[in-house]
Amino acid sequence: MKPPLVIAPSLLACDFGRLHEEVRRAQESGSDWLHCDVMDGHFVDNISFGPAFVEAVAKVSTIPLDVHLMVERPDHYFPRFTSVASVITVHVEAQHDVAGTLAAIRKAGCRCGISLRPATPFEAVEPFLHRIDLLLVMTVVPGFGGQPFMTEMMAKVEAAAEARARLGLSYRIEVDGGINRETGLLSMRSGADTLVVGTHAFNAPDMGAVIAKLRTALL
């Protein structure tokens, strides 16, 4: 059975100068999780924020934090987020022992996820599907917000849903990049159950209306 929909606004798109207010706005708008994109300037060509920022979010957040580590050495950095994160997602392409990192995240008390870039084939994550709680399919090239949605990534979402059913697993399927009502609907129809929403949510005058429309997209 497909898990219930989770909507996770991405704080990369929020007004950093009004962080706590933006966190509260997302929560009051009906968000399920808050998505935190951590970038190191090496794995992706951008630097976003680190542990101190996520800790500041955690001080006012009443919903789970979904931490996406777009860093070259997630095995080194993930311990700095375990005290505040609910889910920590690492990239299959990063420089680390993927299975070992996933096991260590789980041992630290967090759920663990794995992600892959658009250019990476689905086969790269297949050996780890039985070890994860979440699979994040990037629908843009990671590193910058506001990019257009890559429709061709739906083949990976469909493959992830098929593998989950075939193997009897229960990981969530998350999509991140260019999500709005239309692309969110396409993602959900392809098998996604977790939507990361960035500028579409935070740039809206009424974030609650945006989230409500996403929830009713399949009705």
How does the SSE layout of this entry go?
Elements: E1 6-9, H1 19-28, E2 34-39, H2 51-58, E3 65-70, H3 74-77, E4 87-91, H4 98-107, E5 111-116, E6 134-138, H5 154-167, E7 172-176, H6 181-190, E8 194-197, H7 199-202, H8 207-215
Parallel strand pairs: 1-8, 2-3, 3-4, 4-5, 5-6, 6-7, 7-8
Describe the structure.
With 219 residues, the chain is of the alpha/beta class. The protein has helices at residues 19-28, 51-58, 74-77, 98-107, 154-167, 181-190, 199-202, 207-215, and strands at residues 6-9, 34-39, 65-70, 87-91, 111-116, 134-138, 172-176, 194-197. It has one domain (6-214): TIM Barrel (Alpha-Beta Barrel). The chain has 8 helices and 8 strands, in the order βαβαβαβαββαβαβαα. The chain has an 8-stranded parallel beta sheet with strand order 1-8-7-6-5-4-3-2. Helix 4 (98-107) links the parallel strand 4 and strand 5. The chain is globular. The relative contact order is 0.17. The mean pLDDT is 95.
